[in-house]
Amino acid sequence: MSELDSAILRTIIDTAHDHFFLVDASGRVRDVSPGAAAVYGMSCESLIGSNVRTLVEQGVLKPSVSLEVLRTGKPAQLLQHTGAGRRVIAQAHPVFSQGQLACVVSRSMDLTDLQLLQEEYALLQQRFSDHLKRSLGEGAATGELDPGLSSLKGVLEVRSGVMQEIALLLKRVAPSDANVLMLGESGVGKTAFARQLHRWSARGEGPFIDVNCGAIPESLFESEMFGYQPGAFSGSNPKGKAGLLEQAAGGTLFLDEIGELPLAMQTKLLKVIQDGSLMRLGDTTPRRVDFRLVVATNQNLAEAVEEGRFRLDLYYRLNVIPVTLPPLRERREDIPGLVERQLKQLNHRYGGDKILDSGVWQELMGRDWPGNVRELENWLERAWLSAPGGVIATPEADALSGLSELPKREPRALKATVEGDAGRQLAEGKGLKDALARTEREILAALCSELASSYAIAERLGISQPSVVRKMQRHGLRIQPAS
Question: Do 315 and 335 fall within a single domain?
Fold first, then answer.
């Protein structure tokens, strides 16, 4: 290696945000980047020359990603605990010389950085939300559709303020080719919003390829996604086949349940995103691909990264524009529009003119709908088919309607507060809205002193983490776990 090459390599290592280790085939640390000292609790001089096996025994790092690569000869990624009390994601790659494993290059990223990025995004999201609320004015409060969303009439129901905010955000980012990550519980409408994002984009006339990553067997995933050449494997189409990535050319590729993507395919997808090209199975020539990538998941990808189930570098590539769709229980204003639209579709599909009994509305608005929009639509179809006449009645009038099968709402904390001292909650001159806000703040304040993160609070309350962050900011609360 020339003196210039050595200087370039040294500069890359010294200035990189990640923390690099160079480990030889015996496990001896040959070089480290300066930032590694703060993360691993040892000076660079002490780390260099040490054996990673000894470092594991001393608790400086555990487990060792370099040892895993030395053992398998393959790239590895894992969650690592350090002697400085940090948690890092460590990735390592083997380097071969004349067919023999010569050394391992590893890099690690402190997950504290990831947490700070998440908190920064939550604050930015709140500021953007406040700005949109001011621009929406009274329209959102009265359930009126913002003029900028007139194209959504009859397509998506966004009567609630929060859904109008999300729709306006998607409309603003649609002209770009930025990757969008849709987050939210199962059934909240991630696919529907991805389709609308596609319609708003400059690629709206191109294809929209919808792929459920959890529905394709791992053994077939590569051939389905990347395609194959004629004769690539036994039983393949003799003419070959273009993969789903190629089929999305000029349009949008929507990868639902991205958290189910196998690790090997995560690596290949990352390469396609970085290079803008792919290689079919059995081919030797790369093919250029041009599509807009939108992905969705109901999993916590940050936790999947920590557990080593999802690549950190792919996570950063996908998490350019994160959009969290709230569950139906947090946007009940959308239920009437969803019901009316679905009922119209059912009447058209089955050739009828059925209506809802007025008593059903109280039940519909009072349910938590854990399956969200999908569950609501499925119930309506079951109720439509089960109703003997032209009216879909209440459970008492028609036990077959399906409502009796749904679990009742039991907001335990609110129930305890109201039953315990309902009179005190309704102070003089204050209405129900003020009482509910006060109760919400008391519940959140108690949980902020009991639990260590907004994610834990969200899990306890059964709502999304961004919703918890918004509510905490509205009430001026911070996480303060008891010591």
Answer: no
